[in-house]
Write a structure and sequence with these properties.
about 80 residues
């Protein structure tokens, strides 16, 4: 609950980045460790831990030619 309360003071993106960074130090980070990272790390230090936007297929679950084997399976 304490980590969730940190979201009230910081942005969600920064909280996620700090938690990712904390997981690189320990598999089970503590609240105190996460809170200390907020005070010691600058925004530039967290750039590599920011979540990258995912490429989304605007057509949902459409499968392409690679899935069906491309054109090499076509009969002539």
């Amino acid at each position: 609950m304490g980590v969730i309360r940190l979201a009230d003071k910081h942005t969600k993106a920064r909280l996620e980045a700090v938690c990712r960074k904390a997981l690189t130090y320990s598999g089970v980070p503590s609240y105190k460790g996460i809170k200390n990272l907020f005070t010691t790390l600058k925004a530039e230090d967290l750039d590599e831990y920011q979540e990258k936007p995912k490429k989304r297929n605007p057509y949902g679950l459409t499968r392409g030619a690679d899935y069906y084997g491309g054109n090499h399976n076509a009969t002539e």
